[in-house]
Structures are given as structure tokens and as C-alpha cells.
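can u do me a favor
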């Protein structure tokens, strides 16, 4: 049977591929920017890394590009007023094809055939986006070929280069390398290129890892056969991963590239023995037991001690300084376990600390906010711990997790009640929401499973004789499913009200650790290192290794030359990478005894397809000379159609860039042209950051502002220069080389869907039953099988949402008999149940849509370019709330036009200030606002309801602005205080009885009823201003516009703060009278002086001359004697 499956895999699967030759793949490495004026300052092909850890260690922008930018006098670059910087690194792309010589020939062939790679760089937004608003950002970078130096021919070794951008606030980046589509087909590859903040610079200028000592020879410490261990990190936000569990050593494996480059370090911590009666230790071990990686810090547990190290991430807005050594957390606590939380919540990261010894049963929650660590003990409102709530002394906390759904944080606690007097051993799930709530009771024995459905825990179900043992749990916030594992696997979709047991798992194995992909799949490893796999919504779990399919897969890999020596490697861990692909980290030893850590892809779908072949019956047809495997999948193929543009739903902002145009036969770049590429891209990022300001124009996107000084007049001129190769530098900057495509030309399924209030997302999916020839060939083989295969009447699609209180899914079925196709239209609609309004991209609630073809689980496989994939289930992540990329902007152009039209005059600001519009006090103020979608480029007038409040201000200067307290904001803006003469502004020409008012007394405005009259009543901040000059006073108002609580058409809180400069503010009667009296006094003094001069002019003239001579004589005497004299009358 095994040999038959191996043969069939060649016939129906991928086998050895297209041919037995070596396949090529893209490789990515980092390269320091070097000196752009030095042609030899490039990366070296033999050196795979130019950094110590493989990640980005420098976080400061480079000034080396300035020297090149200054020479671009005849280019569309503003060298006079703009300042250009560069990024610290390049990305170098190579083509690896086995041997070095084969790789060199493949690179030259790719250059000659035009197969230059493109890099799609994804910038992960930070946990707490303070520098920029929440956004999803991607850049498509065209690479530039550059020869390696030294070289005396165009056939020398070369590589492709692109700038490696860094964005203030982001430390996690993903580079996806794509082929251009010409020449040899090279599959796309994805790499993690993250910032490593755990590297320090010595006094001599050398770099070293600050967390410990690097061990160059892995075989000196690591051994084969060590138990695997879990990898814990905040999903999508941890730039550096560490893996503990090196037996006998306080060492960890560290990587900043998802184990593409891995290094071993011995940590610089003290191995103290703190065992006592309150914290007993049965055995001392130097091994690091647990490790958890967050965005800015690393946490480890050794014995009962918990340690922390804060990285040096200058790109993050950290509130604490970077660590120089490991610091101990909770010194007085006996720590028995550290439990990770894999998702951040409202700008914070979390994990749990479990007490041991005399503190058994205690539980603490650790919160990291901008690097600041806060630890809180979890107690109910009566101050009781979880065990005290259960009134059990023989009690311990096994695990903890949190549910962040519904914009509310809830703690989940798994307790183990130890046997005692008259009390049996049991488990209990508690939900802490100010008070502890009990979950349903766990059964004492594991229930007997069914064939295809989940086994629900009831009082009447049939049980096995195996006692239930639990050891951990994890909550998936995207699907709302809680997984609990031990010697079985169960889940709960309602936070412990009911429990469902998975089927297919053996009863003689205990799960050691459990890993979620958060995209519908999960994997767990048992104590005997067996690897199991399952899907959300599918009751059956499958053993991947060992299995028949694994044997076939291993044999095929051995024939290809991969994984040939299975006895010389052992498993370290398994994890899901950025692309949700299952990876295993392996420690292997070569024939020379040298150890290394490698990452291998685990193609679960391919392995399961071989398992599927082992259970299929091969049928031979006598009518025709062929044999076939009968179809067990209900459909032949599927296709998704009627998709909208993905940008409207995935909310990804996209930039497309390419290097300068060079005038060489093979388009080979120079170090100067690459430096120009660096400088222009960094300048684009600066403009992108400024584009998120609150005062904006819909048409003035970053690309427009990048060339605004040239775009009106010189566009055709620079195009002519570039087309004809006229340049003093040997290359030309193309204005068309930088673009911001709002809607892509290729329609694809979005990776995530973001929905606003009552928004919908719809598409169609078609399932084909196969052609008549195909059905006639399978008619005989299908006689003994289920009739549901390839029958239109048996293809049914179900749609499930993770929480129907927030989402509604509907499907419409139609039949196309002429095409033997069943077509479904799927529509997902938001129910409008999101609590309140939030800022764009903040506080989103995550859900999932599951589309399932009935009877397709583990039966449908599809061959794609990336390999074999499971078919029949489609999961769509859905986020509801205010989608990222939407904002409210102050439309200054329309405001000035409307204000001039209402007042019949145009007011010119006497002292213009950048980004601060000014208006006259006597003029009506008619503001206009825009809703801008910076992802799709669309904008429209904002006519919905909103409140207008002055929340701060200062007289005469922006530097004098102070923000008012909440009580002062009410006093200066609310109608409830209108009788106290404290209002700053008021509506013009409106009936106060008909105007809408909030509970606080704030007036509600809209796009048509928003004419404002400045009041500045006597007791307001601008109502009693002193004179500082002959011009009327001016005041700077900080105005907040918000639709929160007044606009029910959206989940977005379009909060906007702008500064307005108002001139010509009148003074009160007291200041007017004082100014009048002062003026009269000055006039009287002048008249009196003139009169006195007329009467006693000659005498006063003689007196003044005598005073002048005396002053002059005193000055000469002081100069001659060099003695300081007292000042005389003349002074």
C-alpha cells in the first residue's frame, strides 16, 4: 500500500516537480547603506549578512544621501528647501539555485530576460500607534540591479537592491519577493525583516547582543533528542522571538527573521537559589523554562524567578529606558508559571503570572503599555482570589487567558481542585468580570466520540473509562472559541456554558502545547512529540506525524535531496508564521558534527492528501485505457466572482516606487542612483506622515506634494530629459516612478474585511460538478460510492458567523444547468450593534465568516502554484468598527470661500502662520469639513451632525495656548452656562428652542446650520484681553469637532482638533476707557511739552547744552583714569 501511494503521488500529485533539476528561490539579506559616492560600497555576495543578528540593528536615518541629492540640479528634486535623509539599510535580493555557480548563471539569465524581482513591503502598525494614526501600509518596491565590486565586465556577479524603509513607530516588517513574470518562473517568497533592539554598541564601535553572550558553536550546548517547547510571542507585533528550553543551560535561541537566521545566547542572569518553606524547589535547574516576546520587551522564567529585558527601540514611544541587564519582576513572589496572551488590546500587551508554593492559587495580570509594566492581582469586588471564591484550600490556577471581545476585557481562569476531605478531584472554569462567574461543570471522564460531529457534554452522554485531565487553554478572539487541552481536546463557543469534545484524538496521549494560526487552523504537539492538526468548525482532528501521508512525504523529500538524514535532527518547536503557514524549527547535525537550526515548512494539506490516497480505491476502467481515483469531493472546481475592489474592504494604503532611470545597456544602477532612490523614498514617507494632519485637501496626496514645485510647469520638460538620457549624473529621476494607486487593476479576495455601521460585503462563489465526459468516466467507479459526489443537488453551502449579534450572513442559491454549476451569492451585513463610536482603526471587534461546503471536510484538495491546498472551507476575518484610513479634515478652501460669500468681503490675514487659518472677529465663521478616505482617494462633504467646542486657547501667540479643564469647556461652550456671560461663540440666526442640544448643553451642528458668531463674553478667556500694541487683540482658539454621540450613521468618531487665529477681538469698556484716558494723557503731555518749549525754549536749550558738556567731560576723565565713576546727570 505504501509503495502504491508513493507511485500515485507522482501521477496525481506534485511528485518531484516539473523536473529533477534544482529549483531556484529568492533570498533576502540586509546591507548597510555605505558611502554612495564610493562605487565599491555594496554588499558582498559571499556574505549572507551584514548585521549581527540578521535583523535591522540601526534605527537612525542616514545623512549620507545628502551629498548625492545636492548634485541633482537638473532633476525634479527640491534641493533648496527640502531636507533628504536615507534609511540605514538596503534590501539585497539574490537568486539561489543550489550551488554558487548555478546561482550566478541564474542571476545573469534573469537579468538578460528581464526577470527583475519586486518587493512588496508590509509595515506592521505598532501596538499603540501614537506617532501615526492606525493604518495598513504597503509599498511595492521595484529593485535595481547593481554589479558586485570589483568587476571588469557586465557578466560579473550582481544583485538586486531596494531601500529598506523604516517608519517611526513600527518595528515589524514583512518583505514579499515577487517575480516580474518574465523568464524563469521563481515562486514568491516571504521574509521577516524586523528591528532588533537587543543589540548594543561598545566603546570601540562594535555591536554585540545585550541580553547575553553569543555561543558560536551550537553543538557545544545543544543536543539531539531534547523535548520540543512552545514559542510564545504577541502575534504580529514581536520583532524578536526567543525559544527557551536548552537543557542544563540558561540559554535561548533568538531570531529577528522568524528563524531564517537563528543564534544561540547564554543569558546574563544570576542563577540564585531561593528555595524556602514558602517557595519550595524540588530540583534546581539552570534551564530557562518559559519565554515570552512582546513588542518592546522579553520575559523569561528560570525556576521561580521572573526576569525582564527592555529593548532599545528608538522607533517606539517607550516610557521607560532600555535595559542594560536583566531585571527581576515580582521579587517577593514565588512564580510557578508564566502564561502568555497572544493579542494586544487597546494599545497594551498582557500576560499572566501564576503563584506557587505558599502563594499557590494567586493570579496576577501584567500589562505593558509603551514599555511601562503594571502588575495587578486578580480579585473580585470582595477582594477574593479565585480559589477563595471556590472556598477550596487545595486549589491551584492551571492557566489563564482573556476575552477582549465586546470592547471589554474579561479574564478567564482555569482552576484545578485537588482532592481533599469529602471532595474529589475536579476542574473549574471561572470568568472574572468584577465578580467571578462559574462555567459549566467538566465531566469526570472523557465522553465517547462520534464519527463526524462534536461530542457535546450532557448528563446522558456515554463516557469512556479515561479520567479527564486538563493542563491549558487558549482563547481565539477572532472566532470566539475557547480551546482547552490535556489528555483530550475540547472547546467552548460560549465561554464555558457548554463544552464540545473533538473526535479522532487518541486517549493515550497528553497534549504538551497548543498553537493557533488565528486563521482557522490549529496544531498541537503531544508529550511523545506527535504532531496533530485540526480546523475550527471541524470536529475531526488528524495526526500528521507519524502517519502514512508523512511517510510518503518524507520519501519524496528524500528523493529530492531534502531531509534525507532523519536520524540527525530533532524538533525544537512548531509555529505559524506571518503567512499563516505551519513551520517547524529543527536542530540538525551534519556529518562533521556541526549543529545548526533550520526552519522547514510543514505542508499539512499535501500530507493529508497522501493520507487521503491511502484510503481511496483505485479503479481501472475497461472501456478506456485509464485508471482513476474516484472523487470524494462534492465539486470539481470552485471560483469566486463579483468581487469589489479589495482596497475598500482590506483598507491597505499602497505606494508604488521604482529606481531612477539609468542610461546603460543593461539598466545597471550605481551607488549614487541607489542613494537617490533612498532619499526620495524617505522624503515620501515624511510627506505620508504629514498627509495624516487634520487640515488637508483631498487632491493633495503625498505624491502630489512630492512634485508640487515642478508639476505645473516642468512635467513635460523632465519627461523629455529622461526620455533622451540628458543628465549630468548618468541617471534621471522619473516623476512617474512614484505613484499611489487607490484602486488596483487586479481584483482579488481581501485578506480581511472592515465594515462600518450597517455596511455589507458581498461576492459570488460557483461550484462545478465536472464535464459530462468526466462524469461518464466516473460513472462505473461511483456505483459503490456515495451518490452525493458530483451531483448538483448535493452541493450545499453553509455560512456561519462567529457572533450573529453583530453580523448577519445570507446566501442565495442558483443553478446553471448548461454549465453544471451551482452558484451562491454571499452577503455579510453589519447589524449596527457596535458599542459607541471610536477613532479610525481603534477598538475594532474581530469576527470571522466560515463558508463550508457540506461533506467537504478533508475530502477536497487543490493543486496551486504554492503547493497543495485544502478546499471546501473559506474563512474570512471581519472587523467591525471605524475602518482605518478614514478621517475628518478641515476644508480650508471651502471655508474661506463660504466665509467671504456670507460676509460679502474677503479677509486677508495680517500675519499669516503656517497651517493656522485666520479669521476676523466681526465676520461670521462658516466652517466646512470633509470626510476623506485616504485608502481609496475618495472624499465628500461632511453634512452629518457634530459638536463644535473650544477646548483651549491663548492670546497673541500660539505658544500661549493652554487647554481647558472639562469644567471650563462646559462653561465656555455649553448653553447651560449662557447666563453667566462665559460663552465664546454662538449660532447665528437660529432659534435656540429648535436647535438640538446634548445633555451637557453643547449645540449640535450640521453642514447647513453651522454659521458661527464669535462672542467672547466678559467672563470668557477672550473677553477681557489687555492691549499689547496699537492693533486690536488676536486670540488662538483650539477647536474640537466631533460627531460622537450625535451621528448614528457611522461607528467613526471623527474627532478633529484645529487651531484658529481670530483677529480684531474688541476690548471691554474698562480697557476702552483706560486706553482713552491713556491717549488723552499722552496728548495733554505732548501739548504741555510744546507749550513749555515755546515759553522757556532758550533757557531749556542752555540747560541741555550744559548737561551734554558735563557728560562729555565725565566720559574723558573716566577714560584717562580707568577708574569707574558714578553716573552723572548726562547718563
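np, heres the sequence
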Amino acid at each position: 500500500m505504501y509503495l502504491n501511494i508513493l507511485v500515485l503521488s507522482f501521477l496525481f500529485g506534485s511528485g518531484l516537480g516539473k523536473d529533477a533539476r534544482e529549483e531556484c528561490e529568492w533570498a533576502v539579506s540586509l546591507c548597510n547603506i555605505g558611502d554612495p559616492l564610493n562605487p565599491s560600497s555594496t554588499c558582498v555576495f559571499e556574505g549572507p549578512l551584514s548585521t549581527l543578528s540578521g535583523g535591522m540593528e540601526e534605527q537612525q536615518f542616514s545623512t549620507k544621501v545628502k551629498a548625492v541629492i545636492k548634485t541633482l540640479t537638473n532633476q525634479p528634486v527640491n534641493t533648496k528647501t527640502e531636507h533628504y535623509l536615507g534609511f540605514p539599510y538596503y534590501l539585497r535580493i539574490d537568486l539561489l539555485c543550489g550551488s554558487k555557480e548555478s546561482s550566478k548563471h541564474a542571476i545573469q539569465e534573469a537579468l538578460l530576460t528581464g526577470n527583475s524581482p519586486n518587493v512588496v513591503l508590509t509595515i506592521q502598525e505598532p501596538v499603540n500607534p501614537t506617532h501615526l494614526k492606525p493604518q495598513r501600509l504597503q509599498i511595492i518596491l521595484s529593485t535595481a540591479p547593481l554589479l558586485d565590486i570589483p568587476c571588469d565586465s557586465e557578466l560579473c556577479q550582481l544583485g538586486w537592491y531596494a531601500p529598506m524603509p523604516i517608519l517611526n513607530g513600527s518595528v515589524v516588517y514583512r518583505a514579499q519577493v515577487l517575480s516580474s513574470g518574465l523568464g524563469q518562473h521563481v515562486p514568491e517568497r516571504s521574509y521577516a525583516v524586523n528591528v532588533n533592539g537587543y543589540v548594543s554598541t561598545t566603546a570601540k564601535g562594535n555591536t554585540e547582543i545585550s541580553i547575553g553572550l553569543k555561543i558560536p558553536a551550537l553543538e557545544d550546548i545543544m543536543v539531539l533528542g531534547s523535548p520540543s517547547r512552545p514559542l510564545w510571542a504577541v502575534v504580529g507585533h514581536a520583532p524578536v522571538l526567543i525559544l527557551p528550553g536548552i537543557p542544563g543551560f540558561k540559554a535561548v535561541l533568538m531570531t529577528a527573521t522568524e528563524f531564517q537566521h537563528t543564534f544561540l545566547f547564554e543569558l546574563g542572569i544570576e542563577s540564585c537559589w531561593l528555595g524556602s518553606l514558602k517557595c519550595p524547589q524540588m530540583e534546581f535547574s539552570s534551564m530557562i523554562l518559559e519565554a515570552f516576546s512582546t513588542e518592546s520587551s522579553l520575559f523569561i522564567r528560570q525556576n521561580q524567578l521572573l526576569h525582564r529585558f527592555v529593548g532599545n527601540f528608538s522607533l517606539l514611544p517607550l516610557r521607560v529606558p532600555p535595559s542594560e541587564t536583566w531585571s527581576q519582576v515580582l521579587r517577593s513572589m514565588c512564580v510557578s508559571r508564566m502564561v502568555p496572551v497572544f493579542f494586544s488590546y487597546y494599545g497594551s500587551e498582557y500576560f499572566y503570572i501564576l503563584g506557587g508554593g505558599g502563594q499557590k492559587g494567586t493570579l496576577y495580570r501584567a500589562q505593558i503599555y509603551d514599555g511601562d509594566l503594571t502588575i495587578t492581582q486578580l480579585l473580585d469586588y470582595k477582594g477574593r482570589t479565585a480559589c477563595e471564591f471556590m472556598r477550596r484550600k487545595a486549589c491551584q490556577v492551571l492557566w489563564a487567558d482573556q476575552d477582549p471581545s465586546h470592547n471589554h476585557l474579561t479574564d478567564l481562569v482555569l482552576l484545578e481542585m485537588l482532592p481533599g476531605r469529602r471532595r474529589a478531584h475536579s476542574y473549574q472554569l471561572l470568568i472574572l468580570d468584577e465578580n467571578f462567574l462559574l462555567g459549566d461543570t467538566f465531566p469526570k471522564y472523557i465522553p465517547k466520540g462520534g464519527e463526524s460531529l462534536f461530542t457535546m457534554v450532557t448528563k446522558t452522554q456515554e463516557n469512556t473509562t479515561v479520567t479527564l485531565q486538563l493542563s491549558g487553554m487558549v482563547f481565539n478572539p477572532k472566532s470566539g472559541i475557547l480551546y482547552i487541552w490535556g489528555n483530550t481536546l475540547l472547546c467552548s463557543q460560549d465561554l464555558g456554558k457548554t463544552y464540545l469534545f473533538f473526535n479522532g484524538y487518541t486517549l493515550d496521549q497528553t497534549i504538551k502545547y497548543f498553537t493557533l494560526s488565528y486563521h482557522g487552523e490549529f496544531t498541537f504537539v503531544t508529550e511523545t512529540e506527535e504532531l496533530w492538526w485540526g480546523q475550527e468548525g471541524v470536529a475531526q482532528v488528524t495526526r500528521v506525524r507519524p502517519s502514512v501521508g508523512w511517510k510518503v512525504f518524507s520519501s519524496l523529500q528524500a528523493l529530492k535531496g531534502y531531509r534525507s538524514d532523519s536520524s540527525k535532527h530533532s524538533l525544537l518547536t512548531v509555529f505559524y508564521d506571518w503567512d499563516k503557514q505551519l513551520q517547524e524549527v529543527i536542530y540538525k547535525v551534519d556529518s562533521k558534527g556541526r549543529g545548526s537550526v533550520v526552519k522547514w515548512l510543514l505542508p499539512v494539506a499535501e500530507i493529508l492528501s497522501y493520507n487521503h490516497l491511502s484510503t481511496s480505491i483505485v479503479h481501472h476502467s475497461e472501456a478506456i485505457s485509464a485508471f482513476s481515483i474516484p472523487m470524494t469531493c462534492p465539486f470539481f472546481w470552485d471560483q469566486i466572482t463579483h468581487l469589489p475592489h479589495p482596497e475598500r474592504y482590506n483598507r491597505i494604503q499602497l505606494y508604488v516606487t521604482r529606481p531612477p532611470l539609468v542610461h546603460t545597456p543593461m539598466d545597471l544602477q550605481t551607488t549614487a542612483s541607489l542613494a537617490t532612490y533612498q532619499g526620495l523614498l524617505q522624503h515620501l514617507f515624511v510627506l505620508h506622515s504629514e498627509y495624516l494632519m487634520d487640515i488637508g485637501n483631498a487632491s493633495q496626496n503625498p505624491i502630489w506634494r512630492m512634485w508640487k514645485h515642478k508639476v505645473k510647469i516642468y512635467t513635460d520638460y523632465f519627461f523629455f530629459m529622461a526620455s533622451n538620457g540628458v543628465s549630468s549624473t548618468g541617471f534621471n529621476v522619473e516623476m512617474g516612478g512614484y505613484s499611489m494607486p487607490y484602486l488596483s487593476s487586479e481584483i482579488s479576495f481581501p485578506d480581511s474585511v472592515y465594515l462600518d455601521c450597517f455596511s455589507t460585503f458581498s461576492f459570488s462563489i460557483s461550484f462545478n460538478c465536472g464535464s459530462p465526459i468526466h462524469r461518464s468516466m466516473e460513472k462505473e467507479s461511483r456505483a459503490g460510492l456515495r451518490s452525493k459526489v458530483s451531483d448538483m443537488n448535493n452541493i450545499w453551502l453553509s455560512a456561519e458567523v462567529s457572533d450573529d449579534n453583530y453580523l448577519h450572513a445570507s446566501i442565495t442559491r442558483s443553478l446553471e444547468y448548461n454549465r453544471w454549476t451551482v452558484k451562491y451569492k454571499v452577503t455579510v451585513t453589519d447589524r449596527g450593534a457596535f458599542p459607541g463610536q471610536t477613532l479610525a482603526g481603534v477598538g475594532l471587534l474581530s469576527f470571522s465568516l466560515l463558508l463550508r461546503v457540506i461533506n467537504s471536510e478533508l475530502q477536497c484538495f487543490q493543486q496551486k502554484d504554492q503547493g497543495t491546498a485544502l478546499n471546501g472551507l473559506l474563512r474570512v476575518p471581519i472587523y467591525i468598527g471605524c475602518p482605518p484610513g478614514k478621517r475628518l479634515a478641515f476644508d480650508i478652501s471651502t471655508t474661506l470661500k463660504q466665509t467671504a460669500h456670507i460676509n460679502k468681503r474677503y479677509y486677508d490675514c495680517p500675519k499669516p502662520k503656517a497651517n493656522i487659518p485666520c479669521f476676523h472677529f466681526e465676520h461670521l465663521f462658516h466652517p466646512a469639513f470633509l470626510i476623506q478616505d485616504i485608502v481609496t482617494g475618495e472624499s465628500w462633504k461632511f453634512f452629518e451632525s457634530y459638536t463644535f467646542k473650544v477646548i483651549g486657547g491663548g492670546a497673541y501667540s500660539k505658544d500661549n495656548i493652554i487647554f481647558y479643564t472639562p469644567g471650563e469647556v462646559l462653561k465656555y461652550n455649553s448653553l447651560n452656562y449662557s447666563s453667566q456671560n462665559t460663552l465664546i461663540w454662538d449660532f447665528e440666526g437660529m432659534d435656540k428652542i429648535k436647535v438640538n442640544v446634548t445633555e451637557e448643553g453643547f449645540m449640535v451642528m450640521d453642514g447647513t446650520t453651522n454659521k458661527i458668531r464669535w462672542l467672547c463674553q466678559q467672563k470668557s478667556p477672550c473677553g477681557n484681553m489687555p492691549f499689547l500694541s496699537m492693533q486690536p487683540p488676536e486670540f488662538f482658539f483650539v477647536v474640537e469637532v466631533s460627531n460622537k454621540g450625535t451621528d448614528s450613521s457611522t461607528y467613526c468618531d471623527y474627532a478633529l482638533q484645529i487651531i484658529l487665529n481670530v483677529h480684531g477681538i474688541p476690548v471691554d469698556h474698562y480697557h476702552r476707557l483706560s486706553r482713552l484716558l491713556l491717549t488723552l494723557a499722552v496728548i495733554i503731555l505732548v501739548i504741555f511739552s510744546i507749550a513749555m518749549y515755546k515759553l522757556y525754549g532758550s533757557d531749556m536749550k542752555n540747560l541741555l547744552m550744559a548737561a551734554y558738556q558735563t557728560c562729555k567731560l565725565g566720559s574723558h576723565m573716566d577714560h584717562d583714569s580707568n577708574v569707574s565713576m558714578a553716573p552723572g546727570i548726562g547718563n
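The two ends are 117 Å apart (CA to CA). hope that helps!!
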